[in-house]
Amino acid sequence: MGLPGALPVLNSKVIKCAVMLGLALNCKLSLSSKFDRKQYFYPDLPKGYQISQFDIPIATNGFIDVDLPLEFGGGHRRFGITRVHMEEDAGKLLHTGSGSYSQVDLNRAGVPLLEIVSEPDMRTGIEAAEYAAELQRVVRYLGVSNGNMQEGSLRCDVNVSIRPIGQLEFGTKVEIKNLNSFSAMSRAIDFEIARQAELYNQGQADEIVQETRLWEEGAQKTVTMRKKEGLADYRYFPEPDLPEVVLTEEYVNGIRDSLPELPEMKRRRYEEMGLTMQDVLFLANDVNVAEFFDATIAKVPDIKLAANWIMGDIAAYMKNEKLSINEIKLSPQELSELIASIKSGTISGKIGKEILLELMEKGGTVKGLIEEKDLVQIVDPVEIEKIIDKVIANNPKQLEQYRGGKTKLQGFFAGQVMKESKGKANPGLVNKILIEKLNAKS
Amino acid sequence: MLSSVQNPRTLLLHCRRSKPLHHHYHHRHYAKPIHATPLSHPISASLPTSQIQTIQKSILSREKTTRQFAEEFLNRLRLTEPHVKSFLHVSETVLDEADEIDRKIDRNEDVGPLAGVLVAVKDNICTADMPSTAGSKILENYRPPFDATAVKKLKESGAIIVGKTNLDEFGMGSTTEGSAYQVTANPWNLECVPGGSSGGSAAAVSARQCVVSLGSDTGGSVRQPASFCGVVGLKPTYGRVSRYGLVAYASSLDVIGCFGSSVADAGILLQSICGHDKLDATSSKREVNDFTSQFISKDYFESQPLKGLRVGVISETLGDGVDQEVVSSIRGAVSHLEELGCTVTEVSLPSFSLGLPAYYVLASSESSSNLSRYDGVRYGNQMVSDELSSLYGGSRANGFGPEVKRRILMGTYALSAGYYDAYYKRAQQVRTLVQKSFKAALDSHDILISPAAPSAAYKIGEKKNDPLAMYAGDIMTVNVNLAGLPALVLPCGFVKESSSSLPVGFQMIGAAFDEEKLLRVGHIFEQTLQGYSFIPPLIADEFKS
């Protein structure tokens, strides 16, 4: 609120998050950094200045590795990170439809932010979108933010410039705001590149000016928002109300040692396990899915099966029910149990699929369900023979028809056996014994 | 409280000494005290006693009630206020609070070390139950939703907050003429200024309208008015007292300070408000020792109680531009210190004169930023407008006085692109030099001495149109803020001003967090300074025998 006499106090968790993020982005950390006041007047800025970091940010000179989506050609990219710094958020302006007044919501004023500035290393909209998506993954992996663009937990502004091939100097950059999703970002950048290229080609390159443009989602284009801003003078000076931020090597090392495995490392690890790139991207890019997968294969190391189950039946269920993997009732332990049960022949693959659905919907254990529903696969030939005999005895007409030449009726008998055995009879054995019996001369 | 010590030692000689001094300090003609008659009223004995100790002893032993004390002070306040005008707001619940304390005492409940003590609070310190205007129209009728930490601690100590005192707007000024509401008069001469910016708090204690008061000191705003009003002013080390709830002027320089009619009272007040506050990231985690148990009766002083204390007189402060009579009062104080056993030498602080411009650059810069929040939007006076920049512009143009505008403009300029290096950065470098030179001097001296101001109080209106002349008066005090050190000002003499006498205080500067030593020296000095009475003529009648 910026009340008279109020003072800022630094939230120590912000430092932890900043260091985690700086390390995850391979940055150099400033063991000694400070805060500065960035001064300007605006209704959503209650103090008339924003506490930020100007010339000595907490982290600089890093990079991030991304894998481009397969549908866009795939491939690895490395993008530079110029800096990461801490600052406080301003309030939010709510403009009314009528335009006769606007409201200031100060609830988020003073909430800490981490600002990440990239090097101008991206060349297409999709590269920028994937960079942003990877940042989102990283902050989610670290637990630093939920990275939700819709909620405003992750906000992106983009600067675009073009230059003739061969020219070293960058062209005039244009800022684009109002990007509410990664795909909007990608489209906006591609549009802007095309707009600037068109101007170049028409000999009107000087109409590309340093300005801020708004992305209009409806019209799918960028429009001028503020023209000829020039450089604002924010009259930065060191924030006297907050002491210097001093990090010790021990502190930094402690955080470094406790960092979780980051998406890039996971992707490389999954690649080494022999999974295809498609599998890798699906499994590694959501931290919850990756955790689920890792937990499953920890118990039963059949990577391919686990991957297939997760990417197949489980993913389909999640999509249908609009649930995340944390919300389905199936646990990784039970998935590995399921895989083990099928592998050992305790249950058939078909039964396995049924159990899976029940486990996802209602939870429970594999062992419990097998017992409860009496699902153990019948693999004893004597047992199966008994059932087959019974079925054959109950269906003399079809037997006669079969022996008369309608060999397709084998499927009918097989079906009856499965029904009789409540699906538990091992299909391979059923067919083997059934054919013997059917073909026997009475 | 008085501690029981074994044998009382012999009383000290008073300060009319005759032996020559060892260095080139020598006597000048002293300003004679006006009221040398023996005074019998307990408040008025020629040696100041701790009013806090007196009141506490009295109410706890039920010799007198809290209400009786409160009524005495309130009566005096009512009689003197039309002349002095120290207060912007007087509490209406003083007697109720006094009664509550009496009831607690009757029930044998604990009442706190400041119970029964009427405290005035400078109006730039937030109080939730009274307006806090910081002396500005832009905060007219503003009522904070929280108490400053210092105020919270006062209340926890049982103090009764009698009201909010006048000040130069936002702490900017040295006379209270910068207040948007009224000019406070000096109780010693109602045509003179009380000093500033904590003029109201100093005058209130001087006129005995309250027992003690809180002020704030950014460039001397407690010490200079203390000198002008003949009271004790204590500026603690930066970080000693929480700034939470102090309306910010210059964040790296502001401190809350204490006024009292005796060193003991100023010290006891400080004790109750200092300490680490998690709401102020610049407040010190340093442990606070007990500096009040040393306020013992002079009967228990040793002979030469300050033997071994190394005192340094800052040579740059007794030269040109300082009133002769002020110089002689300071030298008198120095002589007295020598009698008490001090070793006095002269010490030079080479960067001394650079402090003033550096201070004004830094203070203006920080204040230009701190005052950006006063835009009429969320609180305070608003100039209604259809357009944002006129809402801001109009609210601020209307709400701020000329001195505040002057400093905001100066500060904005000093921080602007292209000028930051030449002004702000440069001033910070000077600040480092000032800090270093103080540190060096305080390595070889226990305390440093200077006047608190180059003159005694001047006439109201005299410096109003000459801001630079007013700024120049801060020369004695600003360096201490730049270095963040503690300082104590106590009255030591007078200057004759036509028909009246105006008090003069001397400043003692200590090492960081060494308030204990300053208070000890100040207490001993005060308790052995014979022949002066620092009761202003305005109220002296009450104290005649």
Discrete helix count of chain B = 16
Briefly note the structural class of the backbone of chain B: alpha/beta
Largest sheet of chain A at a glance?
4 strands, antiparallel
Share in helix of chain B: 25-40%
* Poorly predicted ranges of chain B: 1-45
Q: How would you write the strand order of the largest sheet of chain B?
A: 1-3-2-4-6-5-10-11-9-7-8
* Overall form of chain A: elongated
The gross shape of chain B turns out to be globular
Chain-averaged pLDDT of chain B: 89
Instruction: Tell me what portion of residues of chain B adopts beta-strand conformation.
Output: 5-15%
Biggest chain-to-chain interface with counts: A-B, 28 and 42 residues
Distance between the termini of chain B: 26 Å
Residues in helices of chain A, as a percent range = 40-55%
Q: What structural category arises from helix and sheet content of chain A? A: alpha+beta
Strand order of the largest sheet of chain A: 1-5-6-9
Strand coverage percent of chain A: 15-25%
Number of strands of chain A: 15
Report, as a whole number of angstroms, the end-to-end distance of chain A: 94 Å
Radius of gyration of chain A (Å): 31 Å
Quick recap:
Chain A has 442 residues and is an alpha+beta fold. Chain A is built from 15 helices and 15 strands.
Describe the SSE topology:
The complex is a heterodimer of chains A (442) and B (545).
Chain A: H1 12-24, E1 28-29, E2 32-33, E3 36-39, E4 49-52, E5 59-67, E6 76-88, E7 92-95, E8 102-105, E9 112-118, H2 125-142, E10 156-160, E11 174-179, H3 182-201, E12 212-216, E13 221-226, E14 237-238, E15 245-246, H4 249-257, H5 263-273, H6 277-284, H7 287-299, H8 303-321, H9 332-343, H10 349-362, H11 366-372, H12 381-394, H13 396-403, H14 409-420, H15 427-439
Parallel strand pairs in A: 11-12
Antiparallel strand pairs in A: 1-5, 2-15, 3-4, 3-14, 5-6, 6-9, 7-8, 10-11, 12-13
Helix pairs in contact in A: 2-3, 5-6, 7-8, 7-9, 9-10, 12-14, 12-15, 14-15
Chain B: H1 51-60, H2 66-84, E1 87-90, H3 94-106, E2 118-122, H4 149-156, E3 160-165, H5 199-206, E4 212-217, H6 223-229, E5 232-235, E6 255-260, H7 263-273, E7 310-314, H8 324-339, E8 343-347, H9 355-370, H10 388-399, H11 402-415, H12 421-444, E9 447-451, H13 467-472, H14 478-483, E10 487-497, E11 500-509, H15 515-527, H16 537-540
Parallel strand pairs in B: 2-3, 2-4, 7-8, 7-9
Antiparallel strand pairs in B: 1-3, 4-6, 5-6, 5-10, 9-11, 10-11
Helix pairs in contact in B: 2-3, 9-11, 9-12
